[in-house]
Structures are given as structure tokens and as C-alpha cells.
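User: ok so my PI wants both of these folded by tonight, can you help

Assistant: No problem, let's get them done. Here's the first:
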Amino acid sequence: MIEALRKRRSATARELAAATDVSKRHVAKTLARLLDDGLVRCHESVGTHGADVFHAEEGPTSGVVDLGAEEIANSLVWGSNT
């Protein structure tokens, strides 16, 4: 996600979702964590139709974001065969 954002000068969550082929919800959750870690900054409501616009800060070019099951699945996973 951070690499996709760094390829642009700025992007909305929708633009990043399209560029990375993941859901907008996943992008929003990842961006929230990147904001908390100081790796991106957000200009609220300045994009088309009031969208937030994100910019990458200088920092590591790769990393790991720890997402739980509730953040990547539509419903809880109860077993390995569900």
C-alpha cells in the first residue's frame, strides 16, 4: 500500500484500492494504521467529492501490518474448514 502511495504524489482511498486490487475498507484500515505510525499524512475533505487525500511520508519502503481476522474477513472465522 505504501509503495502504491509513493508512486503517486497523493491518492484517495478509492484510488489506492483500485491500484492495489483490494477493498476500499481494507485500504481505509491500513491507512489508519499507517497514519498512527506516522508513515502517511491525510488532508481531510480536499479531494473530489470531499474525499480525504493521503500522502506518503519518508520512511521504510516495506513493512508488515498486523491485521486480525475481523479486519480482513466479512465474518468471523470459526474453524479451518469454514
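One down. Here's the second:
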Amino acid sequence: MKKIFAVAAVLTLAPALAHAAPNSMRVHTADLDLSRSSDMEILEKRIAAAADKYCGADRRTTGTRLISAGQRECVREVKAAAMKQFAARIESESKGG
């Protein structure tokens, strides 16, 4: 059965990941059918872009195109936390909750 998840999720991140930005980021999913692998790929790209912005990895230091090790770790942790939250939400929705 095709189920469309109409959510505009706000992901609350662990305090350890706190930076100058608030401890949340928005990833819009209302236009996605998360039962489709192509839409899950879109979700992953949106999460990656939001994580880059949250961690400051979307801003480059003059003279380099590389992000710092701290930013890389932040992005990795934020993406993992976001995917975990979406997985829990999808599971809950599939059980009718």
C-alpha cells in the first residue's frame, strides 16, 4: 500500500552537537512518498544539505575548499541523528501511530 507521509519534520539534535545555530533544523518531507527508494534518496540529500548548513560546512574558509575535521564529524553525527529520527517516525507511521 502506498502511503504518503506529510510531515515537515523538525529534528532536535543532541546538545553535544550545539553550535551557534539553534539545536534544530528543518527538513521538509511533505512532497515525498518515503516508501519509494527514489524519494528516500531525495530525503537523504535534504538531510545532508541541512546538516552541512547546521554545522557550517556550507561555508568555506578563504583559501580552501575543505571543511574542518570538526565540521566533518558534526555533519556525520547530525546526519546519523536525523536518519535515526526519520526511521523511528516512519516505523511509527507504518504502525498507525
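The beta strands are 8-12, 24-28. DSSP finds two helices and two strands in the chain. Good luck tonight!
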